[in-house]
Amino acid sequence: MSDHIVLTSHARRDKPAEPIHWGAVSAAERGPVIASLTNPAQRNVIGTHSGAYAVYRALAVASGKLQRDHRADLTDTAPAESIGPHPQWSDPDKIVSLDPWGHLVSSAFADRIAAGIDIRPSIAVTRAHINMPELMGAITAGRLKPDGHILHANGDVRVTKAAIDPVWYLPGLARRFDIKESMLRRSLFEQTSGMFPELVTRPDLKVFLPPIGGMTLYFFGDVGQLGKPETKVACRVHDECNGSDVFGSDICTCRPYLAHGIEVCIEMAQQGGVGLVVYNRKEGRALGEVTKFLVYNARKRQVGGDRAETYFARTECVAGVQDMRFQELMPDVFHWLGIKRIDRWASMSNMKHGALTAQGIEVVEQVAIPDALIPADARVEIDAKVAAGYFTSYTPPDAEELALAKGRGLDE
Ligand SMILES: [Zn+2]
């Protein structure tokens, strides 16, 4: 290996060894995503694998823990369930933020891998058992009934799960947001402080592996039934909220909604359909947890206390926007799974609902969280969201109601 540092700030004359034909009908025609760091001449994308974890890889190499040219041994890593291909994979505008062939790399491109090209999966599919105390609660309350197959009497649930790293097709992404590709590239370049010069020096490279978190899918029932028009699907699309999801913080409804969504998914699987939880790494509406905690303080310290009428305004004061999750890209995963219709949709979000229908995915029934599952301190959040257009089973609060402080103070 060369000791030279390869600069990407000036356009190289060589074209990528193997071009990517995004939206081609087969893996062979589409071509592999090659982000090799050891052989720059083979690269056909901007960025590197593993999202933000690339920085830890750099630490591992710098500290001598990891060989710079280590290549993954992919023996026995193939998906535990087969997914696709589905017709949506060959529409370059349907999937723009993940690689539909990302889990099939070791078989689809076995010849190149054997020839020494560093090609890595961006999707992995495995199986697990999960267990959450809320599910035992649902069994005790009689809402869920163990069947000994999908749901066991001790609350264990059999799932298939998939981890997906983002792979962005820049022309498709630009079209999805109705902006110029050049504007998208420039903004990505500038807002990462010039981290990826090829965004502006290599317009011929159309695919970008962004340094962000991806998503995890949890499937309940037979994954092989997805993509068939007769298969009923229940779904919860959940955006990460570490404080509530993992630690049970009661300022929001995230974990209760996640648990409720899983309940709806288990029911659907028990009825012969498929349940799907999509868990997106978009902490704090993709503003990050530092911003989120700053907003919590601002909400609780403001004159008049924590109340729904100022819920979004406090976020906007700190972050400049209310939300950066960009649900426009969220439907891609449904296209990947061949899903055209969601029969039971466990979400109140009008933004998510709008994004799905804009992509031609039908939502049959929207399932609101039962009132009894909402924690008291989360009333501020729920009232604010309902007033802003979230769907719900109860009457939206009026202005007087929204002005009442309902959240705990910082010292309570
Ligand atoms: Zn939350």
Automatic annotation (TrEMBL):
Keyword Hydrolase: yes
Pfam families associated with the record: GTP_CH_N, GTP_cyclohydro2
EC number: 3.5.4.25
SUPFAM superfamilies, A to Z: RibA-like
Keyword Chaperone among UniProt keywords: no
Organism domain of life: Bacteria
Entry's Gene Ontology molecular function annotations: GTP cyclohydrolase II activity
Keywords (A to Z) from UniProt: Hydrolase
Record domain GTP cyclohydrolase II: where: 227-367
Protein name: GTP cyclohydrolase II
